[in-house]
Amino acid sequence: MTDATDTTDATDTTDASGRGRTAVLAGLGTFVPPRVVTNEELSRTMDTSDEWIRTRTGITQRHWADPGTATGDLAVAAGERALKSAGSGEVDLVVLATTTPDHPCPATAPEVAFRLGLEGVPAYDVAAVCSGFVYGLASAAGAIAAGIAERVLVIGAETYSTILDPQDRTTSVIFGDGAGAVVLRAGDPTEPGALLGYDLGSDGSLKDLIIVPGGGSRQRSAAAAADAPEPDPADAYFAMQGKSVFRHAVTRMAASSQAMLERAGWAADSVDRFVGHQANVRILHAVADQLGMARDRTVVNLDRVGNTSAASIPLALSDAVADGLITPGDRVLMSAFGGGVTWGSTALVWPDVTPY
Ligand code: UT7
After folding, report:
1. Which ranges does the record mark as transmembrane (predicted)?
2. Is 130 a catalytic residue?
């Protein structure tokens, strides 16, 4: 029965003081598997070269998980570190962004939560490919604003090495494995670390640009037809139309970043660091150029880790803080583009958080 004196409104996102409930970044942790795969190593097994990979992408090495290590393992390692960085193991929601879940079913997040000692908390996966981390932040922030959660662990974790075709030089040289996680807590929009809004979007007409064609209901349903051809084993691998993806990534990340800047009330040249999805240094520079932002504001760590998809932005944030490129009080703009196609941006003033 409803208490007539209870005036709580589930859609009201203001706290008792009348201030808005905003998601505030309170911890950051990352993990990359120890095995480093250099361009030189790849050029021994496929028709490529260190020179091509470096000049076309900016990548010099990536980390690949050893057989037996799955996305959930990397997610747990990064999650533990993010909880340590936040100074508390308490969260009441886990959101895991990944393109490479441990299983098609169930989601990876519940087991990750369980292994982190967070038994019983709601946990779900977000599938937005390289935009997954930004989508995860927005989803978690929505849960905080709605009063569903006080503290949320948002993880981006990937083992792309498990879906790359070792014969395909157009994809195998680009992607790496890794995980990054943040803790978001309910706070005030004026605090450092408060996420200042989101710009999200998708265009499903371009779904074939980045795809693992096989393994889903589309292929299984087709295979059930009496005259169905044998499935192509290559359909189990990740495929990308790189040139077209490049063009859309620049256009969408620039437009989404611009929309986010307007939402935050920031001029492009007032941004201290642009943390874009680490796909290609040429994409990051093209986006900076379109925004009218100096290229040296762009954080680049893809040289060390390659394109880690949903893990890319937290890994870049962590490396930038470790390198002294992001310090408390800095204006940080984040933007991503990925399969779907999807895109998303957010921004914050960097808080006093030490990444682990
Ligand atoms: O994470 C989601 C978002 N992903 C992205 O944003 C990726 C966006 N795309 C890219 O970063 C770039 O398109 C790539 C790095 C994937 C490719 O660079 P590109 O400058 O667009 O090269 P291309 O595909 O036009 O290929 C140029 C040439 C081709 O040879 P021909 O046709 O000119 O003879 C390719 O066959 O380079 C060849 N090529 C390679 N050569 C040596 C393609 N891959 C390689 C390779 N090594 N690994």
Report:
1. none
2. yes
